[in-house]
Amino acid sequence: MAVEIKLPTVLRAQADGQATVAVDGATVGEVFNALVARYPGLRGNLLDDSGSLHKFVNVYKDDDDIRYLDGLDTKLADGDVLSILPAVAGGA
Amino acid sequence: MTSEFAQPTLRLTESQYATIIGNCYDGLPNEACGLLVGPLGGNAEPTGAVSEARPCRNVDASAVTYTVDPRDMLGAMRAAEARGDEIIGVWHSHTHTDAYPSPTDVRQAVDPAWLYVIVSLRDQAPVLRAYRIRGEGIAEVAVELDRG
Which residue of A has its CA nearest to B98? Predict the structure, then answer.
């Protein structure tokens, strides 16, 4: 099933400059695997060495943070939109 | 730093400037933060124009760190998309230090194309400055206030 992934500006250089990418997959993990297979440069930005979601990335399925759903096992339906957001932080 | 890195000039309207400064004072005693929305130029980098300054929640609720609430970032991303713009930068306050990026700010900088606005509330009058941060490099960019 096709899912639309929205990429933040900082990651687009690794995806041929595209802002949105459509890939197939039944879970967030499957979709990320398909995305990374197409654009290997994205892997280190999305997943850590153990294959878990990178701690500096937030992923929303429509309006819901997937960390509060089932993480990478979160099920997806045709037409769902995944938004990838970098964590924006700092401090004095 | 090359002069190309110290670009573009950040152009804020009086209203946007007031929104940013007001948000920083409203956040006291904690750091405050928000996102800048604006157009990208042909080089896929910000032009320096700002279409909206969007205050965000600091989920750290801390006087020394900030983290933009990701739900607010999602909202900013959608608002930007609706305008044909992008998120082009972030502001945050330094409650007791200079308007200059801290080592934490540099280490956690998200996007080398973004404009990083820091508002110091240390002195009686607020001080707003803008930077670009690339790797370990920091370049201050000019800020112009459009008084309409």
Answer: A92
Phi/psi region, residue B48 (left: phi>0; alpha: psi -120 to 50; beta: rest), is left
Q: Which of A6, A60, A88 to mutate to test the interface with B (most CBs of B within 10 A)?
A: A88
Nearest one of B147, B139, B102, B148 to B9, comparing CA atoms: B139
- Mean of pLDDT values over B103-120: 95
Q: What is the mean pLDDT of chain B?
A: 94
Tokens of B11: 């152009």
Q: What are phi and psi of A74, to 5 degrees?
A: -55, 130
Separation between Cα atoms, residue B53 and residue A13, nearest integer Å: 25
Q: ipTM of this model?
A: 0.91
Residue B117 covered by a domain: yes
pLDDT digits (tens, 9 = 90+) for A18-75: 999 999 999 999 999 999 999 999 999 999 989 899 989 999 999 999 999 999 999 9
Radius of gyration of chain A measured on its C-alpha atoms: 12
Candidates 3.40.50.150, 1.10.10.10, 3.40.920.10, 3.10.20.30; correct CATH number of A2-86? 3.10.20.30
CB contact (8 A) between residue B44 and residue A9: yes
User: A residues 33-92 near B, CB within 8 Å?
Assistant: 58, 60, 63, 65, 83, 85-92
